[in-house]
Amino acid sequence: MRILKNLLRNETVFCVSLVLAVLSSVAVHPDADYLTYPDYRTLALLFCLMIIVAGFQSLGVFALLGHFLLQKAGGMRSLSLIMVLLCFFSSMIITNDVTLITFVPFTILVFRMGGRVERVLKLVVLETIAANLGSMATPIGNPQNLYLYSVSELNMGEFARAVLPYAGIALVMLVAVVLAERDEPLLDVVVKEKNGGHRLFPALVPFLVLLLLCLLVVFRVLPYVPVLVCVMVVVLIADRKLYLSVDYFLLLTFLCFFVFVGNIKRIPEISSLLYSVIDGKALLTGILTSQVISNVPAAILLSGFTDDYSALLTGVNLGGLGTLIASLASLISFKFFTREYPDKKGKFLKVFTIWNLVFLAVLTGAAVILG
């Protein structure tokens, strides 16, 4: 019973997706068509990218980068700007989840060492927004982008038009918010680096090569099966413990939603209803649905009932703003912050919601005008 409670608490979205998949299978009994539901290319790429990024993390690459940039900070405002920009741009490659897992604890540590704990709450919120919106700029920045770019067959020009204007607006807003803060002297911060760059590079090379291969799969230059096999073999040789770092529940969540959507599309009454609801309103539907079930499940669900992938791509990315569960990556920041400051949960939710709604309102307005 305790295991079940922990599963429900820690993997709520997976549990919901599993229930939906099971219930839909009652209406549409399992058959050979079930094998056609999943997008195996997306699942393979997700697995590969997660394990490659885990490899980078195990080598201390991101901490080393953060330490290097920290040495360039001259005051509290410049330190805040560095951390926000680091989250924004790194999320384009290592995903919003990994960015927050890496840099939110780092931020809390540094601000404590620097004697400025009182400013950490707003900074963590801005870092979360930065990671969620920076990740929208590339096909590999977050799971919903990877999935929609794979199934829609959008070209890079179409993808860029759907996301880059809003990523650009978000970047300007983030910089403006940080620069509006009062600057204060930064107390001396001693940072001990675990690895030197010259010792790190040889171990880094295999993961860089694997990342390049995955990018070639993303851009449809290479087939995914040989690259998947290559990644599995290299990781097995380099560091087999990395297999334990993969978020298998995320992969299972994708699989369950594939089953659910595939079954729903085979129920004419429900399928036609969803088509009529979403038709011409993919942007707004993507934003609103994400507020309730988060943007990754929303992307999988809604993609089965619309051909307007550009609007849906914009919608589910902007939909990561708003509620705490709109993007599951936001929960990472909430957990890290409240673990350090358990008495400030309410304050975090208030500040988080206010700033998310501000960014959501501005970017949604821009999407309506540009759309």
Short description:
The protein is mainly alpha-helical. The chain has 18 helices and no strands. About 0% of the residues have low confidence.
Describe this entry's structure for a reader.
The chain has 371 residues and is mainly α. The protein contains 18 helices and no strands. Helix 6 (96-113) packs parallel to helix 17 and helix 10 runs antiparallel to helix 11 (224-238). The chain is globular and about 65 Å long.
Q: What is the number of helical segments per DSSP (H or I, 4+ residues)? A: 18
Rg, nearest Å:
21 Å
**Low-pLDDT stretches:** 189-195
Mean pLDDT: 87
Q: Percent of residues in helical segments?
A: over 70%
Biggest β-sheet description: none
Percent of residues in beta strands? under 5%
Q: Which secondary-structure class do the elements indicate?
A: mainly alpha
**Distance between the amino and carboxyl termini:** 49 Å
Name the quaternary structure: single chain
Topology, number of strands = 0
Shape: globular
What letter string, H or E per element, gives the SSE order? HHHHHHHHHHHHHHHHHH
